[in-house]
Write a structure and sequence with these properties.
Helix content is 46%, strand content 24%. Strands 2-1-3-4 form a four-stranded antiparallel sheet. It has three helices and four strands. The chain has one domain. α2 runs antiparallel to α3.
Length: 140
């Protein structure tokens, strides 16, 4: 081994900078994952807040399905453009499903339920999951 090679192998100047470069890369990757996860969770919570607003519309006496859909869309902050909100009704006599316009066998009107469903696909930095959330409200 030549004198220059020996000197170079014993020289430790700059070792801290190389170690920092390795550690900083890992820390930056972790930071990107945390920021991306936070953004996705925030979007999901915004979607759920919109659904809760639509549910409150019915709980406070609202009856229009199209109006409840609009309430959800307005309350959903930072809503992605491809988001879909669906409103569906179902009726039950006890445990049995029935048509909403008919009376139950005991001559009472059936219990009416409204299901609000929101679906969206989010664009994260590393992940782009599809979220789907539903809430059911008994309106009668």
């Amino acid at each position: 081994m030549s004198e220059g090679e020996r000197r170079f192998s014993r020289d430790s100047r700059g070792a801290a900078a190389v170690e920092f470069a390795f550690i900083a890369t890992v820390l930056m990757g972790a930071l990107v994952l945390v920021v991306d996860g936070w953004a996705l969770a925030s979007g999901f919570l915004d979607m759920r807040a919109g659904l809760r607003a639509g549910s409150r519309y019915y709980m406070t006496g609202g009856t229009s399905d199209s109006a409840s859909r609009e309430v959800v869309l307005v309350a959903w902050r930072d809503r992605p453009g491809d988001s879909v909100v669906e409103v569906s009704r179902s009726c039950r006599c006890g445990e049995a499903a029935t048509q909403c316009g008919t009376l139950c066998p005991d001559r009472r009107p059936p219990a009416t339920y409204v299901q609000l469903t929101a679906t969206t696909e989010t664009d994260g930095l590393l992940m782009s999951p599809r979220f789907r959330e539903s809430q059911v409200v008994r309106v009668r």
